[in-house]
Amino acid sequence: MDTITIIGLIAGALTTIAYIPQAIKVWKTKETHDLSIVWLIILAVGELIWIVYGALINSLPVIATNIGSAFLALFILAYKAKYK
Amino acid sequence: MDTITIIGLIAGALTTIAYIPQAIKVWKTKETHDLSIVWLIILAVGELIWIVYGALINSLPVIATNIGSAFLALFILAYKAKYK
Do B57 and A4 meet the contact criterion of CB atoms below 8 Å apart? Predict the structure, then answer.
């Protein structure tokens, strides 16, 4: 694996990991009042399109990252929808 | 501009625009209790590394998106730091 891909994977790992504390916070507290549902929906759709773009340019970091991020965004969105 | 770049820019526009409602919500309400500061810091750092990766693979969507996203993440982070 080349250096550029590794840099991309580090970036991707961080921006994906970034959602984990938020997901845990929402999961534990069930408090989602300060989270914007519009934000979550646009984010999830955008990440799904990023997966397509990543596939088209053959970028493993873009694909892998956005699969992870989309999953977490949808997880938080599910809590937001349930607990408001 | 080729179709692949346009798809990437659409994805990037969505994942960047996604932060705008959150930024406006934080700006209006000053309520950031449910937002994780760990999330915001990791996200901002990750987005800065994405800009480097985007430059290395010559991907305009990756560069442009992460400049926008990093700016918004830092904006929200500033409010979080100020109002807790």
Answer: yes
**Any chain A CB within 8 A of the CB of B81?**
no
Architecture of the domain whose range is A3-83: Up-down Bundle (1.20)
ipTM at complex level: 0.80
A79 touches chain B (CB under 8 A): no
- B39 vs A19, A29, A34: nearest CB: A19
Mean pLDDT for each 10-residue chunk of chain A (84 residues)?
94 88 86 81 93 96 94 89 80
B43 to chain A: which residues are within 8 Å by CB? 14-15, 18
Residue ranges covered by each domain of chain A: 3-83
A47 has a chain B CB within 8 A of its CB: yes
End-to-end CA distance of chain A: 43
pLDDT of B84 higher than 80: no
Q: What distance lies between CA A55 and its chain's CA centroid?
A: 17
pLDDT exceeds 90 at position B55: yes
CA B29 to CA A72: how far, in whole Å?
A: 25
Sign of the CA dihedral with A61 first, then A57, B50, and B31 last: negative
Distance of CA B24 to the CA centre of its chain: 14
